[in-house]
Amino acid sequence: MVDNRYATALVIGSVLSLLATVYLSVAVGTQHWFQYSSKHVDKTENVTSLRERFMADDWEENTYSDLLFHRNGTLGLWWRCIQLPSESLWYREPDPKMETFCVPFTLPQQFKAIPKTPGNGEPEEDLLRTYLWRCQFLLPLVSLALVFLSALVGFCACLCRSFTPTLGVGVLHFLAGLCSLGAVCCFRASVHLLRPGDGAPQAEGSVGWSFYLALISFPLQMMAGALFLWAARSHRKSYTRITAYRIA
User: Fold this and answer.
1) How would you class 226 by CB atoms within 10 Å of its CB: exposed for 0-12, middle for 13-18, buried for 19 or more?
2) Backbone phi, then psi, for 91, in 5-degree steps?
3) Mean of all residue pLDDT scores within the chain
4) What's the pTM?
5) Dihedral of the alpha carbons of 109, 207, 224, 139, in degrees to the nearest 10
6) Which residues, in sequence order, are CB contacts of 49 under 8 Å at separation 6+?
7) What average pLDDT does range 104-120 have in this prediction?
8) Max CA separation in the chain (angstroms)
């Protein structure tokens, strides 16, 4: 028999865990982690050429970073987007509307080494930025995997009618929260170290709503973990006292 206090803690923890999972999943799948804003955007450049440069498989970081600065770009964990003038089939508009053009990062691109000085033969690898980039997209996946593993452990605990695995559920949520926080910190540090190429305009940057969703998931996961741990430890102490009383 589970005390109402422990049952309430489990329900609230489960709701917090579900909210954190939804927030983090939406953040991972969207591109609004960081946004650049340039005062002057050239609307006369060749759109086809810009698309090809931005979509190139053998891209270098300075190529797409220059376009992000020039074209009011947005950057996510798996997406990069820029603003391009809309193309008309019949005539060329004098003041075309700007449309968002997004390209996903492929898995080989995510694991590609980032050089210190791109474009100079075989440049030396920038280990700090390379591992920051890899951690920023791997840690959210690890966090989600830990939450799903904790859900599986909780489901098995319900089937076995045991309260003991709840302690493991709480620990897994704490680890997931740390991974979420690590992903946010790695991304922010990576963007801070992102260097525009020569001649790139001064563009203002700001974090977007996807970044804040991932950031909010951290305290939600930690609170859920704390509730699960409290319920497990308190229930164990209560069960131990009841057992001792019955033996006496």
Assistant:
1) middle
2) -155, 165
3) 80
4) 0.82
5) 20
6) none
7) 78
8) 93
